[in-house]
Design goal:
Elements lengths: L1 E6 L10 H10 L2 E8 L5 H10 L3 E5 L13 H7 L5 E10 L8 H17 L3 E6 L2 H10 L2 H4 L1 E3 L6 H9 L3 E4 L9 H9 L5 E3 L21 H12 L3 H16 L2
Parallel strand pairs: 1-2, 2-3, 3-4, 4-5, 5-6, 6-7, 7-8
Helix pairs in contact: 3-4, 4-5, 9-10
């Protein structure tokens, strides 16, 4: 059984076949998934999915990639993640690939979400792209190690991974790890401790090989597990079991 720890199956890309996507997920033995809302308008549909489907859970944060979204206070974020089906604050973080200086709004938004997660006693889902040093500094400065965090869709090198692991963090691997060019990520996927790794799709984005180029969905996450198994010299059942155990512990399920 597999746990897709990060997906967006509430998005418009799934409007015409969401029920079929959920059926394919079950057929692929993907028994759990966290559906992530990235703005307030997405909270209701994400919670509806989580409440109506066993094994689905929710997370929410204001996206770090859209300056136009209104910011929330710590207390407002806490209120929005109080539902028992809301298992994390995220995705929050830094993106220096699509967003460019001045980025004080992004760093302030990130810090506010970390403090809110500590107040809510919920773990953090972190988005970090081309911002390793600042991500680590802000995580440390705001006590992210107290509530726990995962670097979702990990796309850094071993130095970044090791520093995050030393801070108590987890690493989640998406379809990117299967890409031929992803040598740094594959090194991390080989070296990371068994008890600190997750698998995810980040669907509808980043479909893994051999499905690259298609719309991604939770039923594709076993391909990520199979690739990790090959990298780590294990079988897919081992990867499924340990990533399920890790995710259940992290999200307190």
């Amino acid at each position: 059984m597999f746990f897709d720890t990060h997906c967006h199956i509430h998005m418009p890309q799934f409007a015409n076949d969401q029920a079929e996507v959920l059926e394919r997920m079950k057929s692929a033995q993907v028994t759990k998934a966290v559906v992530v809302a990235t703005e307030e308008a997405e909270i209701a549909p994400v919670l509806t999915l989580a409440r109506e489907n066993d094994g689905l859970y929710a997370a929410f944060a204001v996206s770090p990639q859209d300056e136009a979204l209104p910011d929330l206070t710590e207390e407002e974020i806490v209120l929005r993640v109080q539902d028992p089906k809301m298992v994390a604050v995220g995705e929050t973080g830094l993106d220096y690939h699509y967003c460019h200086e001045p980025l004080d709004w992004q760093r302030n938004r990130f810090a506010t979400h970390i403090r809110a997660a500590n107040l809510a006693n919920k773990p953090l889902i972190i988005h970090s792209r081309e911002a390793a040093c600042d991500t680590l500094d802000i995580l440390k400065a705001n006590g992210a190690q107290n509530c726990g965090f995962v670097l979702h869709c990990f796309c850094g090198d071993w130095d970044f991974a090791k520093k995050a692991l030393d801070l108590g963090g987890y690493l989640s691997f998406s379809g990117i790890v299967t890409f031929r060019s992803a040598l740094d990520i594959q090194e991390v996927a080989r070296k990371a401790p068994d008890d600190r790794i997750f698998i995810e799709t980040d669907s509808p984005y980043l479909a893994p090989v051999p499905l690259r180029g298609r719309r991604n969905e939770p039923s594709f996450v076993p391909h990520v597990a199979q690739f990790l198994a090959q990298l780590r010299g294990k079988n897919i059942e081992d990867i499924a079991a340990l990533t399920m155990q890790n995710a259940n512990r992290f999200f307190r399920i």
